[in-house]
YncE family protein (Actinomadura alba), 411 residues
Amino acid sequence: MARVRERRWPRGALAGVCAGLAVLSGCRSPVPFYADGHRPDAPVFGLGGPMPYVEPDDAATARPDVSGGRTGGLAEASRALGRIAPVYGWTRPGMLSAAVRGLPARIWVTNTARRAVELIDPETLQVVRRLRVGNVPREIVPSWDLRTLWISDGGGTLVPMDARTGRRGAPVAVASPHDLYFTPDGRTALVMTGTLRRIDFRDPRTMRLHYALRVPCDGVGHADFSATGDYVIATCERSGQVVRVDPRRRTVTGVLLLHRRAAPKDVRLSPDGTVFYVSDPVAEGVWVIDAERFGKLGFIRTGPGAGGLTPSRDGTILYVSGRGTISLIDFAARRVVGRWRLPNAGSTGMGGVSADGKVLWLPGRSPDLVYAISTETGRPVHAIRAGTGAVGLCVFPQPGRYSLGHTGNFR
């Protein structure tokens, strides 16, 4: 794992040491966790002490065990180079599951005014179908087996839709569903019930409640699993915390305060399984969390409204949607390497990448547009008038063996 140094280095001192000893020692300068000219020791929110430097080592590019079995920890798993696929090793272009082969590509977008979900054809860039939901739709979540799309709504229900036919199933009463996830083994559905301060463990097909776990934080909303699936971390937007849960034992195993004024939102695991990235629109950036030790490593400043997190199809870049911009974080370097601007765009929500990786799809909340952005140029290919107050967008199908939920977290 990365080694944290708390002290500050004199300007240029470390670079000079590295230059002089590079041949002998392979020294590398620390990677600052602030971008765009911000000093690496600049405090978040203007409060507290300096954020630490993080010096990368060989473990930063290692690939951990994702076989699902228990190991001696990520550090040990990281040393098994060349034998184990990375976290997103099954989500590359063309790696579609047999469950979705032959299914036409569609962009599913919520329309709160019409209480419906609209389907966009990415080839014609037109809305080709509108599916009635009943209540106000919020999130669109692919099921673990990729055969159903679950629509959460403001009326306290989850509505199943057949991914192939679009036929609506019977709504299931679920208390305060903010987002929906599935354990990597497909045996359990996890419903994040933010207003009730709990995570509901449910049957992944019927959504029958098995167990309600109270969590010691407020506003639990989004989550992601470790590389081995042994635990899940969830963001608590209202209390500035991140909570860690053992899904097998159904217990809370850790709580981490990011900052008393933080508002953590989305979360994604790095391709090597060593860190979690947590977006924070209030702090205007992304927190970096040590996956093994469950502690803060640093912070990457991206810009206002940092919200949705989407890995690129090749697993090298993390797209961070913001207010009128998309920031590109290099997974290996852990820093911002680019920024795309959306002209005349307000806030953008959580989206997804096309199956071939060439287009990033994002919902716009003001105005009510859906943006298709080229991942090669960073320019909008098209802006489609679809949805009203769109908060949910799902690109489906996508490569992957199964879905962990959310707007499309596949592995």
Summary: The chain has a mean pLDDT of 81. The two ends are 23 Å apart (CA to CA). Residues 52 and 75 are 21 Å apart (CA to CA).
